[in-house]
Write a structure and sequence with these properties.
alpha+beta; single chain; Alpha-Beta Plaits; 259 residues; ten-stranded mixed β-sheet; 20% helix; 10 strands; 5 helices
Length: 259
């Protein structure tokens, strides 16, 4: 039987999603907990491998198991064996052709910036801090250059292993609420560090260090070495994954907002 689950985690204490030999990972914790419930080794596949320090409210995974368990038992049993910074939100049987990664049509992230003179102690590693005043309108003007299908070589990490740098951004919105800026982006898929590099470029525009049209220049260079600063992982959340409707999986989880 193939089981799909939604996973929520605080990424501050992890070296990313993917299992690593000498570092704490979300994948290792989830697989260990599921294996105890299934009473056999379980390997999971995720919708998107998040980086070190990145959070998720709606990471979708799947795994195969011959163990017969109720959906509620998968959730309660797994959570009883997980650390406090990871939780299974639900589990359900899905069609055998469902694949958490390859069946996904879109992924959505939210990047949260605290824009004030003083860092937050309460939201340490939950938001990115920027002391320079940011103009939301300038950032949105720059963001328009990134909508649609493009070669995002300037926005991928040098170590990115994706075969193609071409991605399609369907939505890229920036709005301010008090001291917080929310950057919401949806694309068919993302390159390594792509959202953080977009955030870094747009913050340079919002602070007045660069003009909005500079975003187009960076995009056309197709050169990461000239693509601006990579923003911190703090404040980045995977909040949604869209699948074909026949799989019955909601496309969006909790979208964090601070006041």
């Amino acid at each position: 039987m193939r089981i799909a689950c939604a996973v929520e985690y605080n990424g501050a204490g992890f070296h990313g999603w993917q299992q690593q030999p000498h570092a704490r990972s979300v994948q290792a914790e989830v697989e260990a907990a599921l294996s105890r419930v299934a009473d056999h080794p379980v390997q999971v596949v995720c919708a998107g491998r998040t980086d070190s320090g990145v959070h998720a409210t709606w990471q979708i995974i799947h795994f195969d198991s011959e163990a017969v368990r109720r959906e509620r038992s998968w959730v309660l049993g797994t959570n009883a064996n997980l650390p406090s910074d990871v939780r299974l939100l639900w589990a359900r049987a899905v069609a055998e052709d469902f694949h958490a990664r390859f069946s996904a049509r879109q992924r959505s992230y939210r990047y949260i910036i605290l824009n004030r003179e003083i860092r937050s102690a309460r939201l340490h590693r939950q938001v990115t801090w920027q002391y320079r005043p940011l103009a939301c309108e300038r950032m949105q003007a720059g963001a328009r250059h990134l909508l649609g299908e493009h070669d995002f070589s300037s926005f991928r990490a040098l170590a990115c292993q994706a075969h193609s740098p071409v991605r399609t951004i369907h939505r890229l919105d920036i709005r301010r609420s008090g001291e917080y800026l929310y950057l919401d982006v949806t694309a068919n898929a993302f390159l390594h560090h792509m959202v953080r590099n977009i955030a870094g470029v747009l913050m340079a525009v919002g602070s007045g260090q660069q003009e909005p049209d500079w975003v187009q220049t960076v995009l056309e260079r197709r050169d990461r070495a000239r693509g601006g600063v990579t923003a911190a992982a703090d404040g980045l959340y995977l909040v949604g994954v869209r699948y074909p409707e026949r799989f019955g999986i909601e496309p969006l989880g909790v979208v964090p907002e601070f006041r």
